[in-house]
Design a protein that fits this description.
Distance between the termini: 42 Å
CATH topology of the largest domain: inorganic pyrophosphatase (n-terminal core)
CATH architecture of the largest domain: Alpha-Beta Complex
Shape: globular
Order of helices and strands: HHEHEEHEHEEHHHHHEEHHEEHEEH
Radius of gyration: 21 Å
Strand order of the largest sheet: 3-2-1-4-5-6
Bound molecules: guanosine-5'-monophosphate, manganese (II) ion
CATH class of the largest domain: Alpha Beta
Largest sheet: 6 strands, parallel
Helix content: 25-40%
Strand content: 15-25%
Structural class: alpha/beta
Length: 369
């Protein structure tokens, strides 16, 4: 009996595949423009053994995966007595402040950091494989001469930015790769490192609900929980700590959503005015893209957020049939087949039209897999 005596909502039957799951890495491999070098874990291990001064870096607009991987690797190297600095172009977002009560995540400042950076032996790039994903810090690092190691789970894009690659597109998160690497070295993971690495996995699998939630990543998560970290506390820290402004912004953005008549494409837009009038921050809009993908029959969602400089950050998610990596590459961005992004010129209205047209006019990559 349905509460209140209401008839159950009639839903369209979901199209379930009952055969072996097609973990998205298979689809990713077929879309990789250039085969990544085989992961050089042994050579990376030697570089870690032989060096003392390290710099860890992740991409602009850092997310839970990049930051969590940094925290895990920072803990590992520090435990081995290394001198480790963590510097990203952007400051630690407020919602991830719990990862760093000691202020160890620094935001790049030429005056404060250039001499230190010039003196590093090894730079480890986490969760990205393109210099432009590092913003101004990328311009600085690409001209230096330390050994560059790239640990990442994005499709390899060539360009030869690193000396050593630990790229594995079959991993759900970069933090998972860092965890597996530390295990391979036979070293322990303490609770603080586990917190970071679990946050990596939690956020990049969408709390274990995306198609990258493989048995392997669940095993890594389970082992991290064995250290004594509590999943509900971490979930609360990541997803239960927003201000009420975020909900107001969400209401407004969802209210203004654009959906194509066939219901396949949803485009959400966040303007500076929306932020000013609700008191929310641009980073509060992260996650809206995943709320909208819950609509039955929807195949792809794009979220466009107007930045302070007037440029538009585009976040795209696919529910399976559409290759959003391909779409993002048409906007000079990139990412995964099912989650990708780019930054495009404003104004917002023009960007909304441009992104909608990308999917309306022969969906990029549809039917590729
Ligand atoms: P999000 O939508 O959560 O910001 O990003 C999803 C994925 O898209 C990221 O993991 C990253 O791979 C990719 N991505 C997001 N923004 C950009 C961008 O501006 N450039 C590139 N190359 N990739 C991006
Ligand atoms: Mn990632």
């Amino acid at each position: 009996m349905v509460p209140g005596g209401l008839a159950p909502v009639k839903r369209r039957a979901p199209s379930l595949t009952l055969t072996a799951p097609d973990w998205y890495p298979v689809a990713l491999m077929s879309n990789t423009p250039e085969q990544a070098p085989k992961p050089a874990w042994d050579a990376i291990a030697r570089a870690l053994d032989e060096s003392h001064r390290f710099l860890l870096v992740t991409h602009v607009n850092p997310d839970g995966d990049g930051l969590g991987a940094e925290l895990g690797l920072h803990g590992h190297l520090t435990a081995r007595g290394k001198d480790v600095r963590v510097v990203n172009q952007d400051p630690l977002p407020e919602r991830y402040a719990f990862l760093d009560p000691g202020g160890g995540f620094e935001s790049y400042d030429a005056g404060r950091h250039d001499a230190m950076i010039a003196d590093r032996e090894v730079v480890i790039l986490l969760d990205m494989s393109r210099w432009d994903r590092l913003g101004v810090l990328g311009d600085k690092l690409r001209t230096g001469d330390p050994t560059v190691i790239c640990i990442d789970h994005h499709p390899y894009e060539g360009g030869g930015m690193a000396h050593l690659y630990g790229v594995d597109v079959t991993a759900a998160a970069t933090g998972q790769l860092v965890y597996e690497f530390i295990c391979r070295l036979g070293h322990d993971v303490d609770k603080r490192m586990a917190l970071g690495l679990y946050v990596s996995i939690l956020t990049d699998t969408g709390s274990f609900r995306f198609s990258n939630s493989s048995p392997r990543v669940h095993r890594a998560a389970a082992e991290l929980l064995e250290t004594g970290i509590a999943p509900h506390e971490i979930y609360e820290a990541v997803y239960g700590n927003f201000g009420p402004e975020r909900l107001r912004l969400q209401g407004r953005v969802m209210d203004g959503m654009r959906i194509t008549p066939d219901g396949r494409i949803i485009v959400l837009a966040v303007s500076r005015r929306d932020l000013e009038e609700t008191g929310a921050l641009a980073e509060d809009a992260e996650g809206f893209v995943d709320v909208a993908r819950s609509v039955s029959g929807c195949k792809v969602v794009a979220l466009l957020t107007e930045q302070k400089d007037g440029r538009i950050k585009v976040s795209m998610r696919s529910r399976g049939d559409v290759n959003v990596r391909e779409a993002a590459m048409r906007l000079e961005g990139g990412g995964h087949v099912y989650a990708a992004g780019a930054v495009v010129d404003g104004p917002l209205g023009t960007a909304v039209e441009r992104v909608t047209a990308l999917f309306e006019g022969g969906d990029p990559g549809e039917g590729d897999d």
